[in-house]
Amino acid sequence: MENLILKAHKVRKVYGSKGSLFPALNSISLEVRKGEFVSVMGPSGAGKSTLLNVLSSIDSPTSGEIEIDGNSLSDMRQKELAMFRRDQLGFIFQDYNLLETMSIKDNVVLPLSLNRVKPFEIEVRFEEIARQFGIFDIRDKFPSEVSGGQKQRTAVCRAMITNPALIFADEPTGALDSKAATNLLEGLVQAKEHKQATILMVTHDAFAASYSERVLFIKDGELYTEIHRGKTTRKHFFQKILDVLAMLGGEADDTF
Length: 256
Known about the structure:
Helices cover 37% and strands 25% of the residues. It is α/β, with parallel strands linked by helices. It has one domain: P-loop containing nucleotide triphosphate hydrolases (Rossmann fold, 3-Layer(aba) Sandwich). The chain has a 6-stranded mixed β-sheet with strand order 6-7-8-3-9-10, sandwiched between helices. A hairpin with a 6-residue loop joins strand 1 and strand 2. The relative contact order is 0.18. Pfam families: ABC_tran. Its EC number is 3.6.3.-. Belongs to the ABC transporter superfamily.
């Protein structure tokens, strides 16, 4: 498929040992194209976070194949995987994962500094993305001095500043109030539209998922179904998401 960024084929993940095996993922296959914003939803314990960890190479599958931007993860050794994550992937976590002893700016540009990018280019990239996400004016503050929403926007900037092939977001709005969550989600949509950012987001929140263009539903470690927004309004897509979650028996934040 043209512009295919992520391809997973019959991915399985089994925990435990003989006599007490637990299949967390059962033969999941999926694809994500460049510039797509895709959400993954499902009940607690369905395998959402396990799927994200396996797809992002944080964890390894028991079997199956995963390719990101044409690179087979199974062909890489641990050191190569670590370099690949640093250079080609972006990560956004619910708890921000910022370094408290570094300024907002230094947190954002850290991946570029580690890659020895020239100082001038670092400045240019930082100003562009920091202004886009509204953190330029707090660049000299420390994480303890800013709000949760500002911390998460800092984490998003850090994830995007390397122009990664794929961004993995694990419950990015989980610790935010509704206003901060909306600002963050609108920023992700803008990054997709203007930078062709490719985003795979795990969330339990139907409101957050309604900002994506496609939602994959996981149940009992299997891909249950998927829905596309198409040309419908976000409000209509939000209701479609709630309808599927009701069938799944999944929890959801139903505040639009």
